[in-house]
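Hi, here's the filled form for the chain we discussed.

Project: internal
Contact: R.S.
Residues: 361
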Amino acid sequence: MKHLKYILFFLCSCWLLSCIQSELPNAEADILSCDVDPAILRKDPIIQNDRIQILVIPSTDITKQAPIFTLTPGATIFPESGTVLNFSQPQIYTVTSEDRQYQKKYEVSYIVSTVSSMYNFENVRIENGKFDVFFETDHNNQNIMDWASGNIAFSLTGASSTPEGYPTARWAAGKVGQAVKLTTQSTGALGATMGKPIAAGNLFMGEFDLAASITNPLKSLHLGVPVDFVPDGVKGFFKYKAGPVYKENGVVQPNKKDTWDIYAVFFETDTALKYLDGTNKFTHPNIYSIAQITDVQRIEASDWTEFYIPFNVLNNKTIDQQKLKDGKYSLTLVFTSSIDGDTFAGAVESTLLIDEVELIH
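And the returned structure, exactly as it came back:
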């Protein structure tokens, strides 16, 4: 009976502790979603770690906008959700956790400009104190697009403690100024255990879905940003050196050598298709045209070498000019250091440098 009393006391204590813990105020301060009038949107709002970008059609009056936010439970926001503000310049919102112990600031921007057609990769910041993120600005120096990469997924492996060791990083000695360095990296013991032994360096127009990268990597690429022009070709400069040992699923393939890839896809968006991914990037019926570097062009080069790839229109398709004006066409441009990196095949140390890229239109 004495032991039974101790056991009952222990169980009751655990139950009471669980109840107390479940009633503790929430310590999170995040914006989970952002709602605006869908009639003005070019694409769904892009929510990142500390910023939200809302891409809208040119006729939008951004001086009087009132986005509505969904927050983590119990959190509050200032200015209040639904407040009418002038977004000629980005607005700063502060989210405070339910327990009042933590605050997080978000920069919220309404973006009318579409992406430019010249990319020199001079704009870069360090995200989360861990890795590089390249971005584009407009004539007012406002951020209008972040280039996406798989760096955030690589950060979970703990395989690098510096930005230089990530698959996508800045390179000081570009063709002109700074360039992008894409390197296929080992993901270490953790990545090998998960069946993802390498991470190819990549850079693309779109967004990276971290959750999908774990469960279904081909779905992790959300390819495409709205544009108001029809591309004819892509040109730029590259250097490339393949890594010494090619592997598939961690197994050495002595008769294979790694190579790189550049491709671009121009496509129409609708209610059923907001972006392409790794499963349909070349096959979806909404695709208007594709540009891809050829096997002959995929050479190793130690000096800066120029490339040009034209867009090929599929099935004699035509452009709906009104939809183009309304932002209903999107473009993705993708660079990778290992052409089969999305299936975790390639060679560690394969390195692709890219600079001075231009979309001809």
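Let me know if anything looks off before we file it.
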